Fold this sequence. Notes:
With 573 residues, this protein is α+β, with helices and mostly antiparallel strands. The chain has three domains: 4-171, no CATH class; 294-437, no CATH class; 456-571, no CATH class. It contains 15 helices and 32 strands. The strands form ten sheets. Strands 1, 2, 3, 4, 5, 7 and 8 form a seven-stranded mixed beta sheet that branches. It has a six-stranded mixed beta sheet with strand order 19-22-23-16-24-25, with helices on both faces. A four-stranded antiparallel beta sheet has the order 14-15-11-18, sandwiched between helices. It is globular. The two termini are 51 Å apart.
Amino acid sequence: MNGMADAEKLHSELGRIDGKGYKAYKDIAGAYRVDEFILFIDHVQGDPFAAPSRLRLRIPAEDADFPAELSSTRPRRVALEDYLLRAFDAALPRVTQGNRGSGKSGLVAVDTPGQEILERTAVVVAPEYIEVRLVTGLPARGRKVLGFQAREMLLEEIPEVGRRALYFRRHDPEDIATHVRAKEDSVHLRAQLEDLGAVAFVADGSLLPRASGVSDRPLDSSRAVPFRSPDSLRRRVELPGAGAVSGMIVPRGVTLIVGGGYHGKSTLLRALDRGVYDHVPGDGRELVVADPRAVKIRAEDGRAVAGVDISPFIGALPDGTDTARFTTPAASGSTSQATNISEALEMGASTLLVDEDTSATNFMVRDRRMQLLVRRDREPITPFIDRIRQLHRDRGVSSVLVLGGSGDYFDVADTVIMMDTYRPADATEAAARVAAGHPTGRVLESGTAFPEIAGRCPDPGSIDPRRRGRIRVRTRGVSTIQFGTEDIDLSAVEQLVDPSQTRAVGDILVYARKYLKGTLAEALQRVESDLEEKGLDPISPFDGHPGDYARPRMLEVAAALNRLRSLRVSRGG
Length: 573
C-alpha cells in the first residue's frame, strides 16, 4: 500500500512528540503496518477535550479466515459485521486501560449496538479484508502529549483487541452461525408476509416483554409469558435456519388488539413496531417481523407542519386554514395525528400502527352522543374510524390498533385479538356479536374514497444546515438532531431505535439536498438507491471513516425533515 509506514515509524514518532503540545499528534496521521494489521489514523483530534480521533484496524481476510459462506449474501454479511462489532466491543475493557489523563485521554470505543442487527459502518467485511472503525482519545497530561502511553494504546492494546475479536479461530463457530441464522431467518420470514396475507408474524415461544421502560433487553424468562398463537391465526412457515416455525399472523386489513389494562396490548404493538428490524439471538423477538413499511402513528402536540394534505381527516377550519396544504408552527393533537398519517402515506407506508393511549381522542372517534350534540357541519374532523376501512379498500393500507375504550371500532374490524394475561385469543367473532347486539347508532361521517396523498417538493433553500457559516449537524441520543441553528425533535418518531441511526439521518438530510429537484419521496428514493449501492460512507462529512452510522429507513429520514421548522414545500405535479 502506497504511503504505508511500519510500526517502528509510529513508535519513533510517538517518542519524538512526547511532552510536546497536543497538536503534535497531527504528525502521526497516516497508515502503519502493525504486526498482522494495518492501522489507519484517519483523523487526529486537535485537543484532548475535543471529539476523539478516528482510527481503523484492518486485517487481511485470508488471515482472519472466516468461511466465505458467512458473508455470501447481504443479510449474512451484515450479521457477521454485527457479530464482530459486538466481539470487539466486549474485548475492549479486558485489554485497554481506560483513562490516561486529560479529557478523553485513554478512550478506546466502537459504535456499540443494541438489540437490533442493523447495517452499520463500524465494521466492514470485504472480500479482501475485515476492518473495524473505532475512536480513541490520544493520551495527554493537560495539553501535553503522552507519547509513551499512546504507544501502548496504538501498538499493543488495540492490536490485541483485534486478535481477540477478528480471527475466526477465536470464536465458537456455532455462536457465529446462530447469529447469522437469526438475521437470515428474520429477513426470510418478513419476505413471506405477503404470501401469508399478513402485515406481521409473531412466532410461538417469543418473549415480548422488555426488562423495563428504559431497557430494551428482554424480561427475565422466568417472569415472561411465552407467546402462543390462537389456533385460528396460527400459520407454519419454513425458514432456512430454524426450519418449521409456527406463530400468529396479523392479517391485512383492520386489526384491533384489545384487552384489559396491563394484559400485554401495548407490549404486542411495541414488538410489532420493532418488527421492521432484525434482532440478536436471545432477544426474544428474533422471529417477530412486520411489514417493512409499517409506521407507528401517534398524536404530537406542538409539532411544526409544512404544506401537508390533511383534508381526508380535517375539513374546513373556522379560521379558513387550507387543510389541503396545512401549515402550522404548532399542530394540535388531532391535526398532528392527521399530519403524521398523511406524511407516512406520502412516503409509501402500507401499515399503520396506532395505540389509543398516544392518540387524540377526537381524532379516533366521535360517538353517537357527540354526533347528536355537535352537528356534522360544525365539526371539521372526520375521525379515523370513518376512514380506516377506506384506507385499506382504496389505498391498500392496513391498520393495527391497540384499544381499551373504543368499542365502536368493532364495527370496522376484520380481526380482533384479545390479550388476556399476556396470552392472545381470537376474539373476532365475539366482537362481531357484541357489535350486532349493541349497535352504537353512529352515523358514518365520510362515504367518499380515500384520496391519494399528493407529493410535496421541498425547497432546498429551507433546509439549511449552516451555523455561523459552517455546516453543523450534531445529535443528542436518539431523539434530537441539531441541524444548523435548529433542533429537530424526534421524540415522537418511535421507530428510530439507535443513536447511530439518528446520526445517519442528520447527515442524510444534508446529502439529500442535491436530489431535491422533485418530490420528497423521489429524492429519498434516490438516496435509498445510493445507500444500496455504496453503503453509508458517502453521507459522511469526514475525510476519515464514518464508523458511527446505522442505517435508518427513509420513512424516518422523511419524518425528521418534516419536523424541521424552517421547511418550506410546494405541491408536486
